[in-house]
Amino acid sequence: MSERSIHFPEHLPVSQRREEIASAIAEHQVVIVAGETGSGKTTQLPKICLELGRTAIGHTQPRRIAARTIAERVAAELGSEVGDLVGYQVRFTDESSADTKIKLMTDGILLGELRRDRLLRRYDTIIIDEAHERSLNIDFLLGYLRRLLPKRPDLKVIVTSATIDPESFSKHFADAPIIEVSGRTFPVEVRYRPLVPDAVSGDDHDVDGDASDAVLAQERDLFTGIIAALRELEAEADGDVLVFLPGEREIRDAEDAIRGSLTGRARETTEVVPLYGRLSARDQHRVFEASRTPGIRRRVVLATNVAETSLTVPGIAYVIDSGLARISRYSTRAKVQRLPIEAISQASANQRSGRSGRTRDGIAIRLYSEQDFARRPEYTDPEILRTNLASVLLQMASLQLGEISDFPFLTPPDQRGVKDGLDLLTELGAIRRTRGNSKRGASTQRSSKSVGAGQDAAPASRGGVALTRVGRDLAKLPIDPRYGRMVVAAREHDVAREVLIIVAGLTVPDIRERPLEHRAHADQLHARFRDPSSDFFTLLNIWNYLEDRSHELGSSAFRKLCRAEYLNMVRFREWQDLFRQLRELATPLGLKLHRPPKRTASAPDTAKTDDAAVSRPHTNEPGANADAVHKALLTGLLSHIGVYDKQRRDFQGARNTRFRVFPGSGLAKAAPDAVMAAELVETSQLFARTVAKIDPAWAEQLAGDLVKRQHGEPHWERKQGQAVTNETVTLYGVPLVRDRRIGFARINPQWSRDLFLRHALVEGDWNANYPFDRANRQLRRQLEELEERTRQRGLIEDDERILEFFDERIPQTVVSQPTFDKWWREAREHQPKLLNLTRADLLDNDADTVDETAFPRYWQHGEQRLKLQYKFDPNAPDDGVTAIVPLPLLAMLEPEGFDWQVPGLRAELVTALLRTLPKATRRNFVPAADWAARLLALLGDVHPHTGTQPSGTITGTLHEHMQREAGMRFDEAEFDLERVPAHLRMRFRVVDDRGRELGVGMNLSALQQRLKRASEAALVHAIPTNADAGRHGAATRGGSGSKHRDSAGTAAAQHAASVSEQQDVTAWPADSLPESFDIRRKHGVIRAWPTLKLRDPAHPATSKIDLVLATTAADQAREHDRAVAALLARSVPSPASYVQAHLTASEKLALAASPYPSVNALIDDVLFALAVPAIPETSIRTRAEFDRVRDAFNAGLVDAMFEAVKGVAQVLTAQREALAAMKRTNALAFLGSLTDMREQLDALIFNGFISRTGIARLPHLQRYLRAISYRCERLSQNAATERAGSLEMVTALALYREAGGTLPPEPDASATMCDARWMLEELRVSLFAQQLGTATPASLKRLRKLLA
Fold first, then answer.
1. Coil, helix or strand for 925?
2. Does 1037 have pLDDT greater than 90?
3. Which of 130, 246, 290, 945 is the most exposed place for a label (fewest CB within 10 A)?
4. Is 526 among the domain residues?
5. Residue 724 three-state SS
């Protein structure tokens, strides 16, 4: 192309300095061109190079749209078509050819060409445009070109920049010349309106400044400041206002505040328009179009820093600068990308202000002070200081560019950022450290399923790292290393199609749009695609849906569908392009893409019905692939996982970070146990975006040696037959597994073997069933029982000796039961007795001196044989000897003999008994041990455990010998058995047929009383049926100690079979009731005592009668005769009617006033009282004897009844007189005495008093009652006698009650208590009515003696 055909617009500043620029390019290898936006440097510099004869010009742009539009502009100025002389190449499009001399491209495209053309021989000129943006790619290219220039002296490099620090570029290229060209700008007035004014010094203002100064010094919020600035601009000429705010939230709040501040006509003439990256394309286009609303005089554009350099908003005359921006920064501490709100640099502030001077004079209002502006940094930190360097480090390793510290970056990266980048590449399995500088070591070998699978390293690079096979694959993919790792992992999991779709979707901007006025409807439509457990699958759902519809619909219809459902079609096409590119790049990597599954249905046509528009699309994605897809994705997100903390309601992430799920996620309202996130971004807090529920075990599998494993103390696990420990697995501090049980052998085999030998073979705590083990355990039980019986520890060798026994015989490879089983199967064929312990292996040498016969295993008590249990544990309640008593035998035991203890403990028992004596007595028997040996010799061989009963109690026998040997006398009661150690006193444990404990104690009598009912029930169950009578009879006859030998055995068995309990007996129950009968059982002989028994002994005249089997002779003696008397009284005709007919009127009146419910009840009680003395001393056991006694009783019943009833009438008359006397004596001073008399009267006369008193003692009641009347009469006459008598009675009653007596006595009260009860009445007579006389002598002394 000739020089004449190249035209340079004269109005552009670059054109005006064309010759100077051309001369500099010709004379220097590197030229720096600095100029503001609008100077023409982007479009004219490639033409200048072309004019100089350069024929291979590479021109980079930071953004794809800029590369395309600039190529179209340059081609148009050169009169060429795009793709001919001028072409461009971006990620998805290559519009260039062999004839192309000027090639516009993104800086990423040029980086990609470095892998194929290390010296860039394809180009003779490289133009790096917009270098002031200092992106990571730009800085890398500038560093690479600096190294390249000496190797390519023919290469020309032109760096263009805004007027922001061009000197740094010049210094980077050895003081390359700088040519500055001015842009087409108008003057801009900068006004400072700080929200928080700087402190005002006292030198500039008076101390008592006016009120306006105070107002100015007040702090304002951001939105108040914006509204004030807008009002200030109302005084200026019409023009649009561009307001710079830090983020979307602030834009929304500012929009609400501005709209709320507009009043009157200003509301109709002002339009507020937002502009930020997440707006839909339609809403963004509104900013660049003229307002369609009539009458609008001013538009207020609320924008983020996207309008600072990337976009030029037309019509802007005024700028309001908040001085804030969200600036992406990488946190080396949290290892996440942050978006904090920061104060912008001076250069950014000037860029913002310059937006108001593009078309006319402008005004920029800064909402901060001029001093604040001066304190701000001059330039914004380059991206290399604000982002993760993994991608750059990967490319450097791929290109083998050496150490990053040696690479000529324009601004050297922070070493912490370099380290984090290397750590991320190590996490992804992309590199291997070749200098051992990795904190995890040089080795990156992992399982085939881990992140670093197949990490065969490339030849070692000079940079201290070497690419693994995975790293080489990642370097070939033009995407973020994390996403590239997912693609590589898709090969292993055979989910390439799904992963490529998801990775492409994560790389392009979100295609879902949310217009401000239709946000709710858009969210409703987008909810159809939501997967409840994975945002990644939400993307997959969207893809499948749009792919299906794009095939079904034409281009126009599909565009309408996307617009109706708020899906950005342009971005979807970009998504498709990236997928296709990744598919092409993935093919050489060995990825196989299967055809998508045929979907049976697609989403309904939204044009047909609104209801169909919100229905969920049917994706038909196979659920079986879901885990595989997520595992592949997880390989790139190992440091982006988190586990849910229920207490804090957030997620614990890597390196002690905490995050929440982003509100727009489909999992925002769920609380899965663990999630992974495509990115972690910190705004107001740390948010996880695009998340999915995962199983933490996946991360453990994939992370390989990146995980840290902590193990607790090992412990033996019987079920598994091996030592185990709890393992906690963490990845970057995130707990993947908590307290998982694992075999300890793989961590410490020797320790595990020791635990196995100790627990399994020594202690027997395993599930093996080997003959040697059974024999060893039986031998040990026998010897341990010997220790318990003899109360000697140390007879058995300690466990260490036994451990040595097995350690010597078992090989070192045996560390658990499975390994033992395998070894023993072979070893026992040759040495079957190899592991059998012997008595000599276990016993100490002193064990042979133990006399085992002194500690018998059984106690023979008459015909009963009780098992003895031994326990040697002073802290245990069952320490000592315990006799096991079967419940049916309990009632038959007598305490005699048990106090002598077993022979082996008798010496210690005697010594202990001597030590319980009072000191005055004990001093005659010291030393106690010597006296105990002397007394034992005198006692001789006493063996109560063999069934031979001693002549007396041990204390009584000792008492006799001690008095004789010491020549002194003392009371046997001085022996205090309660002070004898518990293990020296026999303990009784009562058990049922199943061995369950029913009661335990050292007091046999108390146990018998407490378990009396249970014992009686057990006796009933022990009675054999008729079918068993013969068998039990034979057993009885065979008993050596039976009282009923020869034929008595058979008789006992027959009685056992024929006598059974009966209820409600009304006649004699059997021809003959044996006094007792025996039943031989496996644990001894059970004796039963057939007995008639009153169910309610307190009311014998009306109580029902039962035939029961008593457990003792005492029970029979107490119950049988009175029940027979009751049966006798009911077996004769009652003379009640005859007696009542012959009573006098006064007698009838007295009987009617009795405490009985009726006169008939009284007469029935009299009848029972008369029957009691009719029972002979020898109990009635046969029907014939009962009939004889009944006939005799009936013969004189009428006369005896008449006399008894008349006597009762007299007693009741005396009661009435006593009551009257007490009523007459009602002075308060006699209240105590009257209370005592009332209690005495109630104890004498009550319902049932006749039978309880007895016919023989009934006449005495009259005397006792007359004594009450006489006492009442003497109360006021002899107060001193009354007082003294009352005190004596209080003492007497206390003695009686302390002995267990009640008034009236219980029906089962002993004869002693009954005698004491009547002695109390005689004592009252002697104290208060001596003239009536007493039947027997009565005094406190006699009462004490009786109760003693």
1. coil
2. no
3. 290
4. yes
5. strand
CA distance 388 to 417: 6
* Tokens, residue 941: 């061989």
Q: Which domain holds residue 396?
A: 384-473
Domain ends where: 1176, 1198, 1220?
A: 1198
Q: Do 9 and 155 fall into the same domain?
A: yes
Residue 432 shares a structural domain with residue 532 = no
Domain-embedded: residue 409: yes
CA dist., res. 576 & res. 91, Å (int): 12
Query: How far, in Å, CA of 474 to CA of 483, rounded?
Result: 9
Rounded (10°) angle between helices 390-399 and 107-114: 30
Q: Are residues 509 and 546 in the same domain?
A: yes
1132-1180: per-residue pLDDT in tens?
A: 998 888 888 888 899 889 899 999 999 999 999 999 999 999 999 888 9
pLDDT at 1239 over 50: yes
Poorest-confidence range of 4-13, 37-46, 81-90, 786-795?
786-795
Question: pLDDT by residue (tens digit) across 1218-1235?
Answer: 999 988 887 777 888 889
Sheet arrangement for strand 94-95: 94-95, 86-89, 102-106, 57-61, 125-128, 156-161, 30-35, 178-181
Query: In this model, does residue 835 exceed pLDDT 80?
Result: yes
Lowest mean pLDDT among 135-139, 305-309, 880-884, 1042-1046: 1042-1046
Contacts by 793-798, CB closer than 8 A, 24 or more apart? 793/872, 794/844, 795/843, 795/844, 795/846, 795/847, 795/850, 796/842, 796/843, 796/844, 797/841, 797/842, 797/843, 797/844
User: Is 622 found in the same domain as 571?
Assistant: yes
CATH of the domain at 72: 3.40.50.300
Between 1304 and 2, the higher pLDDT residue: 1304
What pTM was computed for the model? 0.56
Within 10 angstroms of residue 1030's Cβ, the number of other Cβ atoms is: 14
In a shared domain, residues 493 and 587: yes
Q: Does residue 460 surpass a pLDDT of 70?
A: no
Determine the Cα angle at 102 with ends 98 and 104, to 5°: 105
What's the burial of 131, exposed, middle or buried (CB within 10 Å: 0-12/13-18/19+)?
Answer: buried
Domain boundary among 427, 449, 473: 473
The vertex-1327 CA angle with 1321 and 1332, nearest 5°, equals 75
Task: Tell me, yes or no, whether 604 and 459 share the same domain.
Answer: no
DSSP code, position 1183: H
Query: 108: pLDDT confidence band, cut at 50, 70 and 90?
Result: confident
- Residue 62, pLDDT score: 84
Would you place residue 725 in the very low, low, confident or very high pLDDT band (cuts 50, 70, 90)? very high
**433 neighbors 465 (Cβ within 8 angstroms):** yes
Q: Identify which of 841, 750, 775 has the alpha carbon closest to the alpha carbon of residue 804.
A: 841
Beta bridge partners of 881: 870
| Helix extents (H) in 307-411 | 346-354, 370-375, 390-399
Question: Are residues 982 and 1043 both part of a single domain?
Answer: no
Task: Read off the pLDDT of residues 1066-1093 as tens digits, 9 standing for 90 and up.
Answer: 899 988 889 888 877 766 778 888 999 9
How many domains is the chain partitioned into structurally?
8
Return the structure tokens found at 881: 């000897």
Q: Are strands 57-61 and 102-106 parallel, antiparallel or unpaired?
A: parallel
What amino acid is encoded at 778 in this protein? Answer: Q
With respect to residue 732, please indicate whether it lies within any of the assigned structural domains.
no
Q: Nearest-CA neighbor of 933 among 909, 960, 969, 949?
A: 909
* 908-917, 1034-1043, 1284-1293: the lowest-pLDDT one: 1034-1043
Angle at Cα 836 formed by Cα 835 and Cα 840, nearest 5°? 125
Statement: residue 652 has pLDDT above 80: yes
Angle (CA) 1056 1057 1063, round 5°: 85
Give Cα 422 to chain centroid, integer Å: 38
14 with 155, same domain: the answer is: yes
Residues 6+ apart with CB under 8 A from 207: none
